[in-house]
Amino acid sequence: MNCVGILMASRHQSFERVHTRGPTELFRGAARAGVRRIVQVSALGVGTDAEALSTPYLHSKLLADDALAALPLDWAVLRPSLIYGPRSQSAALFATLASLPLISLPGRGAQGVQPIHVYELAEAIARLLEQPGELGGVMELGGPDPLTYREMLAQYRAALGLGDALWLPLPMPLMRLTARLAQALPQKVFCRDTIRLLERGSVPATNAAPRLLGRAPSAMAQGLAVTPPQPLVDLRARVSPALAAGLRASLAFMWLYTAFVSAALPSESGVLQLLARCGFAGPLGVAALVFSCGLNVTLGTLTLLRPSPWLYAVQCGAVIGYTATAAFNMPELAIDHCGPLVKNVPVLALLLLLWMGERLEPRTDARRHAPARPPNPRLVAATSPR
Fold first, then answer.
1. Which domains does the chain have, with CATH numbers?
2. What angle do CA 47, 49, 52 make, to 5 degrees?
């Protein structure tokens, strides 16, 4: 059985060497040695269409699949969708992306995937190897139901115990540029080919997993409950309810106090002079003052009564906007020894801490309230100590 594969080529590990030449020699050597049954774990999306042939990852897999099929022995090629589970680099990347407070999506995140847990993939392979008769050619494998890319990240986020995220759709050209730049970083899962594979979709035309397992595969939520995701960088913030309430109260005080002082003492506080230096003088300055005070009161009140991811995002934007405007128009404040602008850095860090510390709250929609199926006993047994 051959499971060797890489997502990104390097100087010492090319697709041609790892996916094609190595497996082909392995298959031929096994056939000469009298091995009668070989299983090749390929990849979903491999095909003979122009798009697949132009993708080095898929094309190199296809060449090995074809080399195996040409040998006089019993063989099977398995083409699974995304595989998740312990020590999966791609699953760790998805878990990291899902843990961010602001999650960027390729396009609208509607790309199709059908993840299968690595334990159930292993079980399917074991059952295939043990079955009598001929193996039967090429088989596509996936989980029980298709998901969109966004839904998959939401599953990871729920498994991490995090609350609702803010989703940021990005144009695909920008995602491709990001993937090109990411290839220079010390990671092996995010590159131009992975974006092309995601755009192509990863949903089996005919899912052979139920037949091989003798039952439906476990849902992704069940698999992640049995083997919790492990992000590459754990960005989860564990803030106790009492501490979170105290931190929110301090933020609310800052917003409300600033609004009160600015509205009650516009001359004494110097706010009108500061606005004038920023280009808001006379009636325009008064209008800017009213808007600023209204925004501060709103932010302070909502911080106390209705904290949410959107609220923390708006507050981060307000802090950055206030700081950048003041620094541009009054650069002396940036080097003031009392740090009137530098103090906004810990304020921003506090907002990010509360934002990332938002926990998963019950929702009122039917999907959230639907009773969860218990984890599959076979999947649980795979994690039990022997």
1. 15-236 (3.40.50.720), 241-356 (no CATH)
2. 60
